[in-house]
Amino acid sequence: MKLAAITLVIALLLQAPYLIQRFSSSLQSYQFKKTLQGAWSFDSYEFRLYTPSGEIDQVFHSQDRNITGLLLYTTDGYMVAQLAGLGDVIIDESFDQLQCQSRSGSSASIFSYYGKYHLNHTYTHTSGIVNHIIDASTSPSFAGVQGRVANFSNDYLTLSPMEELVHRGMPVKVDLTWKKIT
Fold this sequence. Notes:
The chain is α+β, with helices and mostly antiparallel strands and 182 residues long. It is 19% helix and 53% strand. It has a single domain, classed as Beta Barrel (Lipocalin). The strands form 2 sheets. Strands 1-3-4-7-8-9-10-12 form an 8-stranded antiparallel β-barrel. It is elongated and about 75 Å long. This is Lipocalin-like domain-containing protein.
């Protein structure tokens, strides 16, 4: 009986680093998901166009535009994102291509999608990857799974597409920043 108890204690001690790491990872994922859940108001965007050699060519900010938006993550795994007032910035071709052109009509400047979400990977309680599993969108080609790198800073969430974006043959990096409202 004593030998079995000693064997059990030794086995648990040998597993302690693994169990601590596993618990820590689960705790980070839990904290990340709890921070992500709720309502977020659009704060800003930044589009960075790069040259073929990888240097920044142009940077576009949302400060001079009247863009509004809402991003929701529910506790049961659903999400919805909507941006209004985009004007000449539209998303097309499954977010692989960014086209800038004039559009008329108020509905043309609205971009929206909804579906489910899940955490793909959590690096820390403030950084990870969120997958949006899109059920429907105002852009029919915007479908499937869209990975987002997510970073929290105070009451702000910055989302960046994991997929490489291209505009007129040049790489584009996009950051959308949201402010927590609930």
